[in-house]
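Can you make up a polypeptide sequence alongside its tokenized fold?
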Amino acid sequence: MNSKFKSIAQNNKNLHTIRLFRILLYCWFLIYYNTLAFNVDFFWGKNSFIPKSTIELFFGNSIFNLFNYPLIENNPLVLIIALDVLLMVSFFKLKNRILPILIYFVTLSLDARSYYILDGGNNLISLFSVFNMFFSLDKDKETPISLLNSTLSNLSLLMAKIQVCIVYFIAGHSKLAGDLWSNGTALYYTLSVSEVSLNSVRDIVKIIHPIFIVLPAYFLLAFQLSFPWLIWFKSTRKFMIFAGSVIHLGISFIMGLTFFGYVLCISYCLFYDEADVKLFESRMKAFYSKLKILFHLYPQKFDDPISTNEIL
């Protein structure tokens, strides 16, 4: 039994999957917080529409309340810049175990200060950030520390997958209990609300045939109810990921819930097999090689100077 547990714990075969997920997670952080930074005072400044007391719900007056420090309280952009630095360093130090902890702490402070604008995507990202702290990109070694790292990494990856399934399970069964989803009119009323839809979308909803509203509503309901089960089977996984990506990218662009849709698309990376990720990476490398040829950088070495005549 002990040897079997040791084999499972040291079977850290998710290195490429975790690396891809971590890169996409950090990209989401960069895009989200820097987008809000264009209105930094509105979201995090002294004159923010959100009361400063919201952050005290998380940290109180402890030393971990970063907005209690005058430098950050008066210049919240400093915290965004600090996060950007941590993220940029993390792209080159993906194996580092301290950087994920620092990133989580900084993002938690920013979210606590802007609590009123958070949605389900922010909550899911926050949970992913916790799991990210336990992900390991170290190869297996015959040491107790390596055994512990592999075990925690494998368990964290499994818990992250289960968390995504729980989200869909609750969302699907909650919709199933609603009359509007049962009769297929939920999307019609949702897309007719100005706060969660674009003007052009509302105009289209008014003129298209009702069947083009009812069928997508039932498809979305069926997808959410079946995702927690079908995503675990290799034969149906690719279809579920493709369907989910279409749905959530549609939510991002049609309903304007941009970052929420991106979060769910990122979460699908957790379910990719190592072979799929390796194939994706090899294709990206091949694409990069073609770009090098296109710009006359191949087969030149990076340290070899390129003359103007060669470029022209």
Summary: The chain has 17 helices and no strands. The CA atoms of residues 94 and 124 lie 21 Å apart. Confidence is low (pLDDT under 50) at residues 302-312.
